[in-house]
Amino acid sequence: MAKVTIDEEKCKGCGLCVHFCPKKVLELKKELNLKGYNPAVPVRGEDCIGCAICATMCPDCVITVEK
């Protein structure tokens, strides 16, 4: 099983990772981070297949995927 890690304080909540995840592992958090954005968070980590599309799509490079 793969593990997705997101630096929530650097995430700008653009939602690209959420949109492109084929397994719908990520969602935007309802709470704001310190910069005032709704960061992405892994909510169904057990469904992650380790494709790393989320990390590839992230314009701020705040996502890492470990297999």
Brief digest:
This protein has 67 residues and is an alpha+beta fold.
Explain this structure to me?
The protein has one domain: Alpha-Beta Plaits (2-Layer Sandwich). It is 15% helix and 21% strand. It contains two helices and four strands, in the order E-H-E-E-H-E. A two-stranded antiparallel ribbon has the order 1-4. Strands 2-3 form a two-stranded antiparallel sheet. It is globular.
Compute the number of structural domains: 1
- Binned, the helix content reads 10-25%
Write down the Rg.
11 Å
Total beta strand runs: 4
CATH topology: Alpha-Beta Plaits
Q: What is the ordering of alpha helices and beta strands?
A: EHEEHE
How can the largest sheet be summarized? 2 strands, antiparallel
For the record, the CATH class is Alpha Beta
Distance between the termini: 6 Å
Strand content: 15-25%
User: What is the helix tally?
Assistant: 2
- Uncertain spans, ≥5 residues at pLDDT below 50? none
Derived from helix and strand composition plus strand pairing, the structural class reads: alpha+beta
Assign an overall shape: globular
Strands in their spatial order, largest beta sheet: 1-4
CATH architecture: 2-Layer Sandwich
Whole-number average pLDDT? 97
